[in-house]
Amino acid sequence: QEKVQQSPESLIVPEGAMVSLNCSFSDSASQSIWWYQQHPGKGPKALISIFSNGNKKEGRLTVYLNRASLHVSLHIKDSQPSDSAVYLCAVTPTGANTGKLTFGHGTILRVHP
Amino acid sequence: EAAVTQSPRNKVAVTGGKVTLSCNQTNNHNNMYWYRQDTGHGLRLIHYSYGAGSTEKGDIPDGYKASRPSQENFSLILELATPSQTSVYFCASGDAGQGTYEQYFGPGTRLTVL
């Protein structure tokens, strides 16, 4: 079964800082890798996904995927207090056309003004 | 935007009682999912469905049943609730057929079993 591990467990940064979140997974043939954001008392919401090796940029978000090292990272530029949330890494297992996702435990991010 | 709703939002149940959690989606997605979220365990998949009439076991199905009577509705049933099932439950919908695998989550149901 796919395993997804995230680091750090929590992070506190000042407003405007660059935030870097890490995720490692166990199967190099995994399909899409997703990052979800979850605010307190809410359901997770998809932020960005990546399938191919390399990077993908959307607004203040950049995600880097290296399948050989089984690692994906999310970088948030110019962080804002509204970015304070739990960030979940999720992986679609190999061969799964069910849309199933395996989630990591998350990183708690706090951005203080 | 995709819309997934859950009811009830909060539920207190007694040990041994029957609990039904309901989920409705207006996205016309084929797939629906039930997860529970616990500190130290993250989100874990309980049951999922490919469409009306189908249910499949996820990673932690023991003690739970699921029902998908229509495209829009997916229920999670705890026939004999236990305190270990105290958790926050999330429903999600998605359409793997589009190749994106994005899931849209509801707001969650907080269940306490006493």
What topology does this entry show?
The complex is a heterodimer of chains A (113) and B (114).
Chain A: E1 4-7, E2 10-14, E3 19-25, E4 33-38, E5 45-50, E6 54-58, E7 61-66, E8 71-76, E9 85-91, E10 102-103, E11 107-112
Parallel strand pairs in A: 2-11
Antiparallel strand pairs in A: 1-3, 3-8, 4-5, 4-9, 6-7, 7-8, 9-10, 9-11
Chain B: E1 4-7, E2 10-13, E3 19-25, E4 31-38, E5 42-49, E6 56-57, E7 65-67, E8 73-78, E9 87-94, E10 103-105, E11 109-113
Parallel strand pairs in B: 2-11
Antiparallel strand pairs in B: 1-3, 3-8, 4-5, 4-9, 5-6, 7-8, 9-10, 9-11
Please provide a written account of the structure.
The complex is a heterodimer of chains A (113) and B (114). Chain A is mainly β and 113 residues long. In chain A, the strands form two sheets. In chain A, strands 2, 4, 5, 9, 10 and 11 form a six-stranded mixed beta sheet that branches. In chain A, strands 1-3-8-7-6 form a five-stranded antiparallel beta sheet, with no helix packed on it. In chain A, a hairpin with a 6-residue loop joins strand 4 and strand 5. The model of chain A has no long low-confidence stretch (mean pLDDT 92). With 114 residues, chain B is an all-beta fold. Chain B is built from no helices and eleven strands. In chain B, strands 2, 4, 5, 6, 9, 10 and 11 form a seven-stranded mixed beta sheet that branches. Chain B has a four-stranded antiparallel beta sheet with strand order 1-3-8-7, with no helix packed on it. In chain B, a hairpin with a 3-residue loop joins strand 4 and strand 5. At the A-B interface, strand 5 and strand 10 of A face strand 5, strand 9 and strand 10 of B.
